[in-house]
Amino acid sequence: MKITPLEIRQKSFERTLRGYDKDEVNAFLLSLSQEWERMNDEAKELKMKLDACEREVSKLREVETSLFKTLKTAEDTGSSMVDQAKKSAELYVREAQISADALLNEAKDKAKNTIEEADMTSRQMLGEMEDNLRELVNQYKAAESQRNNLLDDLKRLANETLDRADRVTQSTKNFNPEDHLILARREAKKSMYPNDNNGKHLHSQTQPETQKPVIKESEPMRSFFDEVA
Question: Who has greater pLDDT, 132 or 10?
Answer without folding.
Answer: 132
